[in-house]
Structures are given as structure tokens and as C-alpha cells.
Amino acid sequence: MAVTRIVPYARTTDLDASREFYVGVLGLDVAMRDPVLGLTSPANPTAQLIVQPRTAGEPEPHFGVDVGDPAAVDAAHAAVRELGLRVVYPLTNEAWGVRRFFVEDPGGTVINVLAHLE
């Protein structure tokens, strides 16, 4: 497994206002608009931020770890289950092209483990 990037997540109640701030004030580029706002640095496209709407009742990961490919997501999921860690969002192929699951680490931080589908 090769971690290709770690992406911090921010929460918002107003995606448009957040986009205006991150693009207009900080100069980030919009890379994705749906289902979340994905932003990248024009100087370093691997420097990324995901802005998500606040949702009630759904697990909210603190950050995402891209493990490179869907098979690595499956391997990480198997390792998490073997360790008895809590999976708070099931292993899923999302319509927007990622395979992922959310796990709670031993300290209680929720992590989105993902890879883009081919």
C-alpha cells in the first residue's frame, strides 16, 4: 500500500461562501463541485482541501487518506477489521468514482480511507 495523499476536510453550512473564500481570498482552484467542494493549490496540485456540507446523523471524517488503488482500500479494510477497529461507514464504491470506508482510529479520529476507481 502506498499512501498517495492525505487530504484535510473542512465543514461548512454554506458551500458557496466557502468557495468564494478559498478561491477569492486564498487563490485555490476548484477541482470538484459535487458531492463536495474539492480545492487544489495552483502551484502544487497535491496540496488539497475538501470542504463538505455539515450533515446530521452521518459520520464525518476528519481527513482522507488516499491509498492509491481499490485493492489497497480492501487490504486496509481487512486490516482494520482484523484489529477490531470500528468501521463507521461501510466499504462502498461511490457514484463519483471512489472506493472507500471510514474507520475510527484508536484515538477516536474518523478517517476516510479511499482510492479512485479505474
UniProtKB/TrEMBL annotation:
InterPro entries: Glyas_Bleomycin-R_OHBP_Dase, Glyas_Fos-R_dOase_dom, VOC_core. Residues 2-116 form the VOC domain. This is Glyoxalase. It comes from Saccharomonospora piscinae.
